[in-house]
Design brief:
about 110 residues, mainly alpha
């Protein structure tokens, strides 16, 4: 599968490959990722979270847990917060930080 980025450009072939790996990894593990996240989403079901927030959370969990090249949790969480600040609502980054921090501390 080849995925298009609607805003901005991915210039580096390695970046494109990694982006595709993230998308494919999240899509093929979405149920397991959501089950992993659910205990840390105190106020609502993962399925009821804002689509942007839910996508950012899924990416971060996949990045921290993929078998090939897992990211250091602090890096994945920081990236998720930055994405939330750029693409989410005003409070998104706080929610994402709280959920991912609780998940990371539980491991």
């Amino acid at each position: 599968n080849n995925f298009q980025v609607t805003t901005g450009n991915i210039h580096n072939a390695m970046d494109k490959e990694y982006a595709n790996r993230i998308i494919e990894g999240v899509l093929s593990n979405v149920e397991a990722i959501d089950a992993t996240l659910q205990p840390f989403c105190k106020s609502r079901k993962v399925a009821n979270l804002d689509k942007v927030d839910r996508s950012i959370l899924r990416i971060a969990v996949w990045e921290m847990t993929n078998e090939v090249e897992p990211l250091e949790p602090s890096i994945a969480i920081n990236e998720a917060i930055q994405l939330a600040k750029e693409f989410g609502s005003d409070a998104s980054y706080k929610l994402i930080n709280a959920i991912l921090d609780a998940y990371n501390k539980s491991k």
